[in-house]
Amino acid sequence: MNNDAFLPQIARIDAVRDETPDTKTFSLRFREPDEARAFRFLPGQFIELSVFGYGEAPFCLASSPTRSGMFETTIRRTGKLTDALHRLECGEEVGIRGPFGNGFDMEGARGKDLLFVAGGIGLPPLRSLIWNVLDERAGFRNVTILYSARTPADLVYKDELDEWARTSGVEFHMTVDRGAPGWSGNVGMVPVLFTKTALRPESTIAYVCGPPIMIKFVVQDLFMRGFREESVISTLERMMQCGIGKCNHCAIGHRYVCRDGPVFNFRQIRELVE
Amino acid sequence: MSRIITEAGLRELAEAWLRDGQAVAGPSEVKLGLIQYRPITAAARLLFDGFVHPANSIKEFFFPRHEPLYRYRLEGSRVVLEDCEPPAVKQLVFARPCDAAALPVLDHVFNWDCADEFYNRRREATTVVTLACSRYDDECFCTSVGLGPAAEQGADAVLFALGGGAFEVRPTTAKGDAAFADRTEESDRTATPFAGPPRRVALPRVEFDSPVWEDATLECLGCGACAYTCPTCHCFDIVDEGNAAGGMRAKNWDSCQFSLFTLHASGHNPRHAQPRRQRQRIYHKFHIYPEKFGPILCTGCGNCARQCPAGLGVLNVLKAIEASHAEHLPA
User: Fold this and answer.
1) A50 vs B: CB within 8 A
2) What is the predicted pLDDT for the residue at A272?
3) Domain residues of chain A, as ranges?
4) Chain B residues touching A253 at Cβ < 8 A
5) Contact B231, B301 (CB under 8 A)
6) A9-100 and A106-235 share one CATH topology?
7) What are the b/e assignments for A64-95, b being 16+ CB within 10 Å?
8) Residues in chain B closer than 8 A to A246 (CB atoms)
9) Cross-strand bridge partners of residue A144
10) Which is the CATH superfamily of the domain at A9-100?
11) 3-state percent helix, strand, coil for chain A, nearest multiple of 5
12) Which of A1, A2, A270 has the highest number of chain B CBs within 10 A, making it the mutation to test binding with B?
């Protein structure tokens, strides 16, 4: 084979779970057992997923590498490719290239307090890291998860949110921008949750992922509360197309998001010029 | 002593390659007044002189406009992929030095971290013979980017027109030597050095945050002609051509000058205005690429300006940057 870099491996859809009216989680397994065994990734890395006939697009790995044999990705129906993907059923096949990108710095997180702040569909990349941390719980100190969505219907991984809320050693809070009948939880933007938890800026790494406007306000708030730029981390979204730093779609300044990212701290993000 | 070949000898060389089933490409008049690099089927079509620069570049013989990567088809619910082989056919390409000089520059991006075997296979299979320039136009600025009318970068042999249908041959690699073995005669005629265009711009420090981008590039239409005819621009897109039952995955040329280039499915577009896209292109060429790989991503060929319907081009933007620096000098 001479074009490995562009040739996907084939994965089968094992399960499809409806998260919200427009978002599904796909459990995928490589068709070839050898490929399944060889597939190693870090939380924060991404794959190029092909729906043949529609093309290929980047999506984050949403499952933890500690759960091997399969992997998951959570995808909102937004365009032609995701529309076609949402029509696929169990047993149908897609193409996978990757994993690509740097992923979260797991070693740098060991022994630290971890604060996860996610908004809406921004939870999937953090979910990979959260489960990895919980599966290796002894390696990390306090784990705090703050999650927000527009409405209760927009919350993803609803069963797991309950599980995190019940897990000892995990502090979990969530809020929605607008309530709905039957919702008795918090209402308001994600910064309202900062008042419910004791923040320890000097010993904490904060992982922030969500819509740009949410990231902007959360990050400002964190800096005001004493977090340093280096210890606030996010993952950037760009139209990564080749995944190998050649096609230039994801170039921001001297960085290729697909190779140098997609995980950056806010000191690096501040230096990125579009 | 020098080695000489006649124009008839060059055409015989091209014919010999074609007879052996190999490919030949070079400057050719594709219609009245339009000279482009094209694959040719008869050596008579090749032009060796009488023009400044073809309207395109030779990059398409290494990095084609459209390249099938593999074919896919659905058998029941099973996806079957068939790898596409990069061509192994040898090619002989005649080019201007500013086109050949782009090749060692492009080698960096197509090989860092992960090699593009399609590109590499074509690079290995190709012998590049450059036609040293003996004239220039208002858009040429090779001498401003460290090259010149007889630059050897990327060339396997350089030809110098001596007049009277004769060319001096200076092979620079073993491939170039092999191409001309037994085809040249010894002579005491050598080419007169030619200085090329005057230096037109001192490569300015490229500031990212500057009003010059908006001022100098607002007229850009975003057509991508500059990028498509540039020997060094290498943006591409990966698309499916076919339907869900079968088709091909292909790599097609793209350009950072297109408004769709960075558009997300969500509607968010990180580079939302044309001056931002122009800034990306120029900044990438003169700042980002050299920082990452060493060489600048420009050979001064001038095609961007020749082909621009809005009268822009790299040289004009660089001059505007230079002028803006001069304005800001302390009195």
Assistant:
1) yes
2) 85
3) 9-100, 106-235
4) 208, 283, 288
5) yes
6) no
7) bbeeeebbbbbbbbbbebbebbbebeeebbbb
8) 109-110, 114, 116, 234, 236
9) A115, A171
10) Translation factors (2.40.30.10)
11) 30, 30, 40
12) A2
In this structure, the number of other CB atoms found within 10 A of the CB of residue B312 comes to 21
Q: At what angle do helices B314-327 and B274-283 cross, to 10 degrees?
A: 90
Res. B330: pLDDT tops 60 = no
pLDDT at A234 over 90: yes
**A149-159: pLDDT as tens digits:** 999 999 999 99
pLDDT tens digits along B207-262:
788 888 888 888 999 999 999 999 999 999 999 999 989 999 999 999 999 999 99
Q: How many CB atoms lie within 10 A of CB B314?
A: 27
Which positions 246-305 of B are in contact with A (Cβ < 8 Å)? 247, 249, 251, 254, 256, 261-266, 268, 270-271, 276, 280, 283-284, 287-288, 291-292
From chain A, the residues in CB contact with B244 under 8 A are 51-54, 84
Which residue on chain A is closest to B247 by alpha carbon? A53
Residue with tokens 């993803």: A156
Residue B66 forms beta bridges with which residues?
B252
Q: How many whole angstroms separate alpha carbon B241 and alpha carbon B248?
A: 5
Instruction: Specify the CATH number of the domain A106-235.
Output: 3.40.50.80
Q: Alpha-carbon distance A150 to B72, whole Å?
A: 40
DSSP symbol at A133: H
Reported ipTM: 0.89
Output the six-digit token pair for B206: 């490229």
